[in-house]
Write a structure and sequence with these properties.
single chain, 178 residues, mainly alpha, Arc Repressor Mutant, subunit A, 0% strand, rod-shaped
């Protein structure tokens, strides 16, 4: 939970370039006015120094924003690609297990974390039907239950260097996953 001050600072930070641009415009106006009126004194030099500093910070912030925007677009594209590859992998496994269309729909919802009650409501069927189809899915996939079924897909996403468990984890049933 963020405090109101943290939210305000975040809001302000997100608009740094706009604020610096507005401040710079004010100083341009004020410096031009002072020069027009012939008021060349220490005040003018202070304003010119502040204007120069604001301009430098403005360009640094704009450059940083452009770099971050580029990184964000690259990460979004990568996430889309990986999401598609994962979905293709899941569909391939479902096809390999000869899951019916109805079983595939339920398997997707199980992978997404929906409860049997929620799946039954979404599909407008009885919860017992969902449980029976889930049992069939687990049997066809050689998984002992929901957790092992989900783990079957998750374990491939984790590399040995990132996993906190041994390289060859065993399931609750004692089998080594494929």
């Amino acid at each position: 939970m963020t405090s109101p001050l943290e939210r305000w600072v975040g809001w302000l930070r997100g608009r740094t370039a706009w604020w610096l641009g507005a401040i710079s415009l004010f100083f341009v106006y004020d410096i031009a006015r002072d020069l027009w009126l012939g008021e060349i004194d220490a005040h003018l030099f202070v304003e010119a120094a502040i204007f120069a500093a604001c301009t430098v910070v403005l360009f640094v912030e704009l450059r940083r924003n452009l770099l971050l925007s580029g990184r964000l677009r690259t990460a979004d594209a990568r996430n889309q690609r990986l999401s598609g590859e994962f979905a293709d992998y899941v569909r391939t496994r479902f096809t390999g297990w000869n899951l019916s269309r109805s079983e595939q729909e339920i398997a997707w919802l199980v992978l997404k974390g929906f409860s049997f009650t929620e799946i039954a409501t979404l599909r407008t069927v009885q919860e017992k039907t969902v449980r029976q189809q889930a049992t069939s899915i687990y049997a066809k996939s050689s998984c002992g239950g929901r957790n092992e079924f989900i783990a079957h897909f998750i374990q491939d996403l984790l590399t040995a260097e990132h996993a906190a468990v041994p390289v060859e984890p065993t399931s609750a049933s004692g089998r080594i996953p494929e």
